[in-house]
What does this fold into?
Amino acid sequence: MSTVAAKREISSAENDELSREAKRPKADDKNGEEGGNESEWENVLSTFTTSSVLSDSAREKIMFVHGKIADHDAVVVLEKTPIREDSLAELFRGSKLRLELRNDIYSSYRLQAPPHLNEIKTTVVCPATEKHVKKYKRQESFLVEETGEDYRSITLPYIQEQSLSLQWVYNILEKKAEADKIVHDDADPEVGFVLLPDLKWDQKQVDDLYLIAIVRQKDIKSLRDLSSEHLPLLQNVFQRGKEAILQRYNLPASKLRVYLHYQPSYYHLHVHFTKLGYDAPGCGVERAHLLSDVIQNLQTNPQFYKSRTLHFPLRADDGLLRRFKEAGRL
Ligand code: M7G
It folds into this structure.
């Protein structure tokens, strides 16, 4: 099946169910399950009041907005969705066109598409912590050099105090949320993992495919905790993850970028699977570590990531950056 055929398959089979992104803010609902009888189109953002635009990009057609829903801080991410090849016929047939300019062989129009072809992927974080607000705020970044010793004396104490909640991860592993989205589920406690679409992917086209594999072992925070004893786990995620993506999306391993982030935002080991050619946020060399390299490094040196100096970017107001400065490491 071609990529185009795969696009069609996603859009026809899963479209309706998958288009619903904005979810009810769950101030006191820890398990993340959606209420059974909520109307599909309930607007949880109708009372949203904007405090500030944290960042935006006209080119990427995305905006990160900070505000409040009732008394809760919230971050809303608005992103115009890509135009899908399989919707072109309907787009051309069913839209209104208003002429803006005509000159010789050139003309420019404003096209008003049918509403269902003109959606905005909307992600809501509510209640949002200060860390969430900082995560989405445009800021200058600085490259930090972290030795194994820096990790133990600066980074580890910081992440033990300050990390974002992992409740959403446990909800996925325990099938309390997103259970219907799971692409592959390996229940083995040692080498098992859950593979599912990343929050950032609207799943309407494989061009920007983005899945994450969340490992079942709960005590691996990041790359730094990995040693050769984790090789069977990493190899299982790599192999089975690629097979599951080939089967579901018809995308071969040669079209995938499979990597870990260091530093991650969430300190429970997970692996990113994105389509090669899609410029996914955080896939640059300063943050992404190819899983194939990680496996080889651990095969060569079982303690590679315990001793190795690692580089990563930190934003200007990141508390970890302050700790590196205070320790005279920046
Ligand atoms: P990361 O490397 O810890 O941090 O990756 P990053 O967000 O800075 O990249 C965590 C990944 O999990 C990201 O790609 C998120 O988009 C994704 N993610 C975060 N949350 C809260 C969810 C969620 O609730 N569901 C799913 N499916 N993915 C999520």
